[in-house]
Specification:
- By secondary structure, the protein is of the alpha/beta class.
- The protein has a single domain, classed as Flavodoxin domain (Rossmann fold), CATH 3.40.50.
- The chain is built from six helices and seven strands.
- Helix 1 links the parallel strand 1 and strand 2.
- It binds flavin mononucleotide.
- Flavin mononucleotide binds next to helix 1 and strand 6.
C-alpha cells in the first residue's frame, strides 16, 4: 500500500516539515510505502504552460512521475501553511500540473469539459494538515475557511477521493514547544487512524 506526502513550505526547520516527517515516519512504521515530496527542496516548477494543458499535451518526465505516483497512491497527505487562505503557489502549481485530465479526473464521452467531472484517483483517503496564525473563530467568521472547500470539494471531491479529513494547527507564532510536541503526536495519531498498521501480506 502506497501513500503520497506532498509538502509545500520553504523552510526545512518549519513546523510543517516536522508534521510531514512525522507523518512519513508513522506511515513507514505502519507498513506503507511512501512517496515523499518536499516541493521546495525538489525545486518543483509550479508554472503550467499552454502545451501541457490538454489531456494529450506535452508533459515532462518530472510531472509524469508525479502523475504516476498520485495514480498509484492508496492515500494522500498534503502539508502546508495557510497563505492568504490558500496553499503556497508552489503547491497550487502542483495541483495544476499533477491533477491532470486522464490522471485525476475525466469527462463523460462527448462532454467537452462543461459537464461534471468523474474522479479517477484510487486513493481511499486524503488528509490535509495545515498551520495558521489565525484563531479558529476568526478564520470561520471573517474568511470562511477557504482551504476546507479548496481541498475537500474542489480538489479531492472532484478527483474521486471519498474520505477526507483536514486538521489545522494554530496559532503557530505563539505556540510553545510542549504544544507543538502534542500537535505532532496528534498528527501521527490521525495518520494511524486513516492508515493503520497493515500486515506484510497487505503491503
Ligand atoms: C505569504 C504568507 C501569507 C500568509 N497568510 C496567512 C493567512 O492568510 N492566515 C494565517 O493565519 N496565516 C498566514 N500566514 C502565516 C503562516 O500561516 C504561518 O507562518 C505558518 O502557518 C507557520 O507555520 P511554520 O511554523 O511551519 O512556518 C502567512 C504567511 C506568509 C509567509
Amino acid at each position: 500500500m502506497k501513500v503520497s506526502i506532498i509538502l509545500g513550505h520553504p523552510h526545512e526547520g518549519s513546523f510543517n516539515h516536522a508534521i510531514a516527517q512525522r507523518s512519513k515516519q508513522t506511515l513507514l512504521e505502519n507498513g506503507y510505502e511512501v512517496f515523499y515530496h518536499d516541493l521546495y527542496h525538489d525545486n518543483f516548477n509550479p508554472v503550467i504552460l499552454h502545451e501541457e494543458i490538454p489531456e494529450d499535451g506535452t508533459v515532462d518526465p518530472v510531472i509524469r512521475k508525479h502523475c504516476h505516483e498520485i495514480s498509484e497512491s492508496d492515500g494522500i497527505i498534503i502539508v502546508h501553511p495557510n497563505w492568504w487562505g490558500q496553499p503556497p503557489a508552489i503547491l497550487k502549481g502542483w495541483i495544476d500540473r499533477v491533477m491532470r485530465p486522464g490522471v485525476a479526473y475525466k469527462f463523460e464521452e462527448g462532454d467537452k469539459g462543461e459537464g461534471i467531472p468523474i474522479g479517477l484517483l484510487k486513493a481511499k483517503a486524503a488528509l490535509v494538515f495545515n498551520t495558521s496564525n489565525t484563531f479558529e473563530e476568526r478564520e470561520l467568521q471573517v474568511f470562511g475557511d477557504p482551504l476546507e472547500r479548496i481541498w475537500r470539494d474542489c480538489v479531492f471531491g472532484l478527483c474521486g477521493v471519498k474520505t477526507f479529513y483536514r486538521k489545522t494547527y494554530r496559532v503557530i507564532v505563539t505556540s510553545t514547544f510542549e504544544e507543538r510536541s502534542e500537535w505532532l503526536k496528534d498528527a501521527s495519531d490521525i495518520v494511524s487512524q486513516y492508515f493503520p498498521l497493515i500486515s506484510v501480506d497487505e503491503r
